[in-house]
Specification:
The protein has ten helices and six strands. The chain has 213 residues and is an alpha/beta fold. It folds into two domains: 115 residues, Response regulator (Rossmann fold), CATH 3.40.50; 67 residues, Winged helix-like DNA-binding domain superfamily/Winged helix DNA-binding domain (Arc Repressor Mutant, subunit A, Orthogonal Bundle). The strands form two sheets. A four-stranded parallel sheet has the order 1-4-5-6. Strands 2-3 form a two-stranded antiparallel sheet. It is globular.
Amino acid sequence: MDDHGLFRESLSRLLQAEPDFRIAGTCGSATEALAILDQEQIDVVLLDYDLGEEQGLTFLESAHTKGFAGRALMVTAGMSDTGTLRALESGAAGIFLKHSPPAQLVEAIYKVMSGEMWLDSRAVRSLVAGASGKSDEQRTSQPLTERERAVLKGVFEGLTNKEIGVKLQTSEGTVKAVMQQLFDKTGVRTRSQLVRIALERLTEDWRPGETEG
């Protein structure tokens, strides 16, 4: 979904050349995209952050309310740190910058289709740099348990407490208790802030999409 028709057409032609992809539709607004979701079973949505009078997050939040179980990859010219955090917290599967090579977009789509995350390396560096600006008193050096790391990864992936519980085969109450432990250890108060912590603490569990070279 993108409000620039020429970009939508070019992207559609690129992806139609991939044997594993079927284009269900292209659209320039959240309203059009939600209408397609009512008619088609969609695995992956490519979503621009800035849709002119709308934001991609409008679609993302409405789609999840309607029960959309697919994945959404933000394909954008750029986003603020706040926008990136909001997108991840709203369930976006990753951030892909438009000036990256087309072949890398295909790779990113395959990644998110398989359940992984994709983050442009520049977006990661920007977010981590912002998080690194905290004072030593504000930062935590306490090690995280395996269970805490698993829950933190679920938060990073945009899952609800109930969804994290299903993924980890534990109760929602247990997830809530672990969330409280994470808040206490990290000193943050919101899920968005925990996403930044995840970017710093989970680097050995996954690798962001590289866009350099």
